[in-house]
């Protein structure tokens, strides 16, 4: 569909939660649909950890369709015939917004000199983009997974910027298990000799480590039921086990494919920085330890959606946010949808999700 | 679509523009009527399919269990708390009533009256648990775990220090007068305050 790819340079340095600042910040973004005359029909879509701004347009490296094309487009639940949809690459990422692979002031890549950023820093860059676009109040901010964390952060820290806040398969804080899986991924990258303390730009990237990180993470995005249904104990292109360490099983072959495919489009250092930002995310901690205080006095309408097969960000995490919103007196909806695909359900064919999103956005 | 009689009574007697919490809001019929009256209305509903239908109509409904989740709502956050045809399904109706009057300045409660003459007759003459128009599900699969009569409810309200501001009684769609309602009404609606 018709998309506009643009890059904005923020007018000033971006102050960071970690204490430092980023001097020159570029934000790469896509827009779909027209902004109306009073600039009231904008929806900010926030992408997940390894997502990008190509929500409903072909990915420039892989050529694959946008990651939420089933949801975003004319006549779809997020209807670009009515709404102006903006999706920006988060800072720290590698698809055009400033990240560890970007040039620092000395002309070489930041690599590990890039500052550790937070979810709120990502949102601060989004707000800078909205300011530059002249968009005061969004019709809605929408996100799944890490995108949901950004939506919650925007609602808590810039409450006047979004009338509606839609948070799918997400959480207000990273759990010990979430952090543990991320640490596994980071250690896989750092254990790859090609990582070279992050200084691999211009040479060979730590693709083996990054692929292992992706394989581990990918398992957490699925469910046991989905894996069993899809692969069972089926063998890959062979009649019998090889008594070796090739990918005998289909599930092994699938994971290897996911891992190697990922390295074509993603930067290992970005993976380190973004997973760190997610691990640091604790919205209550930012607001004196009480999550309800993060939403005190909010006039936004909220909708949270979880999936019964999602064990990465289970329903209890969404309920935790809903309880806080109730305590704050906020207008909140919550529904746990039944879908077999685990955490990835929010990206897949779940008709009930389409109805909830369409209805909530109005 | 016309509202169920107890919901119609509630919709007609909530002050327009009020803040209302509908506990066990079902498919959102009352919420829609109250929204049309300019109320700020929220719902709690256990059934996921009902919640999905509500949210897809733009209503603010949280999927949850009223027995457990009412505790998250602040004191007097609402002008009205509504509990329609749900009291008899609560694990502790007495505590539920306390919670209603904590989160709402006023409360509407409707329930099927177990002392209706058909129910009495089914027990007295049939010797079986009643299955009637008002109580249509067999004992082994009904969600009604705490059957209650109009007299019982009045007594519970008194014991809880709640005053009955208004009351309405129905047999099917037809209103029934207060005198003799305990045997003639299939449903009752009470407006309570404390």
TrEMBL record, chain B:
This chain is encoded by the gene named metW
Q: Which organism is it from?
A: Qipengyuania qiaonensis
CDD domains per the record? AdoMet_MTases
Official protein name in the record: Methionine biosynthesis protein MetW
**InterPro entries given in the database record:** Methionine_synth_MetW (IPR010743), SAM-dependent_MTases_sf (IPR029063)
> Pfam families this protein is in?
MetW
């Amino acid at each position: 569909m018709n998309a506009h790819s643009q890059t904005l340079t923020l007018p000033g340095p971006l102050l960071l939660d970690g204490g430092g600042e980023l001097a020159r910040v570029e934000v790469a973004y896509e827009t779909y649909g027209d902004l109306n005359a009073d600039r009231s029909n904008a929806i900010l879509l926030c992408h997940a950890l390894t997502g990008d701004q190509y929500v409903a347009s072909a990915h420039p490296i892989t050529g694959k369709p946008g990651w939420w094309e089933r949801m975003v487009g004319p006549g779809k639940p997020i209807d670009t015939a009515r709404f102006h949809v903006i999706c920006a690459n988060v800072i720290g990422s590698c698809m055009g917004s400033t990240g560890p692979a970007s040039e620092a002031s000395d002309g070489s890549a930041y690599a590990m000199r890039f500052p550790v950023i937070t979810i709120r820093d990502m949102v601060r860059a989004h707000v800078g983009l909205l300011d530059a676009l002249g968009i005061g109040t969004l019709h809605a901010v929408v996100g799944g997974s890490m995108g949901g964390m950004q939506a919650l952060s925007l609602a808590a820290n810039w409450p006047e910027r979004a009338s509606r806040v839609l948070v799918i398969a997400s959480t207000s804080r990273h759990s010990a298990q979430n952090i543990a899986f991320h640490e596994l991924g980071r250690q896989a990258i750092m254990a790859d000799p090609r990582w070279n303390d992050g200084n691999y730009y211009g040479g060979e990237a730590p693709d083996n480590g990054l692929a292992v990180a992706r394989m581990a993470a990918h398992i957490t995005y699925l469910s046991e039921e989905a894996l069993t249904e899809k692969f069972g104990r089926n063998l890959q292109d062979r009649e019998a086990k090889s008594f070796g360490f090739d990918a005998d099983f289909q599930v092994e072959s699938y994971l290897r494919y996911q891992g190697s495919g990922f390295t074509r489009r993603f930067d290992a250092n970005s993976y380190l920085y973004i997973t760190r930002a997610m691990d640091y995310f604790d919205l209550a901690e930012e607001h004196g330890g009480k999550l309800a205080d993060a939403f005190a006095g909010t006039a936004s309408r909220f909708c949270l959606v979880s999936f019964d097969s999602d064990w990465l960000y289970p329903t209890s995490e969404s309920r935790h946010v809903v309880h806080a919103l109730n305590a704050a007196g906020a207008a909140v909806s919550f529904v746990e949808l039944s879908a077999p695909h685990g955490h990835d359900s929010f990206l897949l064919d779940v008709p009930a999700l389409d109805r909830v999103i369409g209805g909530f956005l109005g | 679509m016309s509202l169920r009689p107890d919901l119609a009574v509630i919709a007609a007697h909530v002050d327009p523009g009020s803040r209302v919490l509908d506990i066990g809001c079902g498919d959102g019929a009352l919420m829609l009527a109250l929204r049309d009256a300019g109320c700020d209305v929220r719902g709690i509903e256990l059934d996921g399919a009902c919640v999905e239908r509500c949210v897809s109509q733009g209503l603010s409904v949280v999927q949850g269990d009223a027995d457990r989740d009412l505790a998250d709502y602040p004191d007097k956050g609402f002008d009205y708390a509504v509990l329609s045809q749900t009291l008899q399904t609560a694990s502790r109706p007495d505590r539920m009533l306390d919670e209603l009057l904590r989160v709402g300045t006023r409360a509407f409660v409707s329930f099927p009256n177990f002392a209706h003459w058909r129910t009495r007759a089914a027990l007295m003459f049939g010797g079986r648990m009643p299955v009637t128009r008002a109580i249509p599900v067999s004992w082994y699969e009904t969600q009604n775990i705490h059957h209650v009569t109009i007299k019982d409810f009045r007594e519970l309200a008194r014991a809880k220090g709640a005053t009955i501001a208004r009351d309405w009684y129905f047999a099917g769609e037809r209103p029934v007068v207060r005198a003799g309602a305990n045997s003639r009404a299939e449903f009752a609606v009470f407006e309570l305050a404390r």
